[in-house]
Amino acid sequence: MEIYNSKKDILGIIFFASSILILGYMFLTPLNQLIIHIDEYFSLTLVTLPIHDILTVTTWDVHPPLYYLLGKMAAKFASMTGMDLLFSIRILSIIPYILILVISAVKIREDYGWLTAGLFTLSLGIMSEFFTHFLIARMYSWAILFILIAFLAFAEIIRTNDIKAWAVLSVFSALCAYTHHFAAISAACIYIILFAYIFKFKKDELKMWAISAAAAVILYIPWIPSLIIQVTQVHQSYWIPEVSAPTLMNSFGYYAYTSDAFFSGVAILILATLIYIYSKETEKGNISKEDRFLILSGIGVYVGTIVLSVILSVVVKPILMVRYLLPATAIMWLTISVIMTKIENRRMFMISGALVGLLLITGLATTISSNDTIYQDGLSQKAVLDNITQDPNSMVIIPSQNMIMYFLDYANKTDMYCLNVDHVLGENMNRLHKFYDFKTYNGNDIDSLIANNTGKNIYIISWNKPVLNTTTVELDKQVGVVFSKVKQSNSTSYNNTEEEYYE
Predict the structure, then answer these.
(1) Same domain, 155 and 50
(2) Which residues contact 54 (CB under 8 A, 6 or more apart)?
């Protein structure tokens, strides 16, 4: 018995309306006012630098520059309007979700119906780590938007061979590469899959494929010298561990937000079941040739991104971090949403719906739980930072070269001492003094620096707990970053601070 499209549309509209509510909550959630990830410190500092310096620092970092240039625009807007800088770049990260809702309501709904549009937007709100990364001041949400547009252009090429779709594919593949390297890997997967399709079925379109691929590469040429520097930096030293069996398991199940091997295994089994049901629908002729290839391609982009990243991790240097798969994960959820729409058999639709519903319920529960944890951790961290910046007698020491760029935004708010080095991510230390009010000290003199400032409330921000001759108390720890305070016998406010954080 067939499922009427009108019923699917009603279900899809309910999902889409829920997505709009999620968007509203993004603007209301207290996460908007809190720093929730160490990398956001880096973003806050970088977007306040001049454009030339942003390009210099990102060249010596591991990410492309586009997000930070967009962040610079948001920072300029915040400066002109008096808006809080953190809030402005949080809004910058929400904008892609708004655009995805528009694209889904117009393009995806028109091509596949309301169920696909609604399920897709809802999944991007509550599954995997999407919600967090639509709020965090990082580039992931923009990478998701760009790879989605590139994939929709790919689908249009399969259906109509529209020259405008070829142009869109080229431009947005290049934008993917300028936003996140894993989005670039996903875009490369799209081109590889498209080549295989054209070579087998439409050899007369090989010229268009070559022109489009060349155009994407040409658009990316300005950043290639910087990419070479980044690859060299990664090859020499990078913190990501080698690929392991648990990492692979979590990667293949990441579309459902994996938190452990068991949940990953369940998610993989559910995905396998959906693919099996899809194959049965294909045998019945319920899915057109173009849609069949689109579905296989979406799975191919997700799996291909993982496989290519594993190959690069083995050949070059470990680069696979599960959260880097978010752009490809969005394509996987679009694929699942299309599969659900194409299932006509009532029994198979109910089974598939139950499985997807189980994922959605689990994803929602996980999102609520993780957001609460992030909120509580954020409150603790914010309390520490507020205590430091509002204390006129405070002094901050940054003992690690790799951490200097993260906290320079706070240098103008307190008395800050950074480890004396020549360059920080390619940026000359003397030039940084033009933008931020901080002092430097020699690495061997940190104990002397502390001893010479006994009248100060001295705080240390470091990777892991600092090793000093002086006793320190850990105030807070977030993602490996430790906020400590030096315990000094003549410090009148120390005991109050200790009680405040450890009562």
Answers:
(1) yes
(2) 46, 47, 65, 68, 69, 72
How far apart, in whole angstroms, are the C-alpha atoms of residue 460 and residue 457? 10
Indicate whether 307 and 358 sit together in one domain.
yes
Give burial (CB, 10 Å; 0-12/13-18/19+) of 283. Answer: exposed
Residue 478 contacts residue 381 (beta carbons within 8 Å) = yes
Q: How far apart are CA 328 and CA 316, in angstroms?
A: 21
Question: Three-class SS string for 43-54?
Answer: HHHHCCCCHHHH
DSSP string, 153-201: HHHHHHHH--HHHHHHHHHHHHHHHHH-HHHHHHHHHHHHHHHHHHHHH
336 in the same domain as 272: yes
- Token readout for 147 is 């790879």
Q: CA torsion angle for 150, 154, 155, 161 (degrees, to 10)?
A: 130
Of 194, 193, 173, which Cα lies nearest the Cα of 183? 173
Say if residues 400 and 419 touch (Cβ distance below 8 Å). Answer: yes
DSSP string, 377-421: HHHHHHHHHHHHHT-TTEEEEE--GGGHHHHGGGGGGSEEEEE--
For 141-196, what is each residue's pLDDT tens digit? Answer: 999 999 999 999 999 999 998 899 999 999 999 999 999 999 999 999 999 999 99
3-state secondary structure of 423: strand
Instruction: Please state the domain count of the chain.
Output: 2
What pLDDT is recorded for position 494?
Answer: 35
Instruction: Note whether residue 383 is domain-resident.
Output: no
pTM of the predicted protein model: 0.91
- 351 and 415 share a domain? no
The CATH number assigned to the domain holding 493 equals: 3.40.190
Which stretches of the chain score pLDDT less than 70?
1-4, 234-239, 258-259, 488-503
Domain boundary among the residues 352, 378, 404 is at: 378
What is the domain range of residue 32? 5-378
Residue 131 lies in a domain: yes
Residue 162 — left, alpha, or beta (φ > 0 → left; ψ -120 to 50 → alpha)? beta
